[in-house]
Fold this sequence. Notes:
- This protein is an all-alpha fold.
- The protein has 2 domains: 1-34, no CATH class; 35-76.
- The protein has helices spanning 2-16, 18-26, 31-34, 36-62.
- The chain is elongated.
- The chain crosses the membrane at residues 36-53.
Amino acid sequence: MKSFFEGIQFLFVDVLFAPLDFLRSLELSSWTAANAINWIFMIVCAAAIVYWIKQLQIFDEAGTENQDTTAHSFLK
């Protein structure tokens, strides 16, 4: 039973967390490269927000959006 849990430890510590260990060691030499995943995530989120706002504007200008407060039955 002990070897089973040691196998799980090896999987998580030595295999699955290896990329995070690499990023931790990379931070000492280049903060920007170590945070590249965060930068990519922020760029994707910003692009999604811009797309969403543009779509809201398109539907608002077309007048197809129902802005009545009774649009949903639970708001009556």
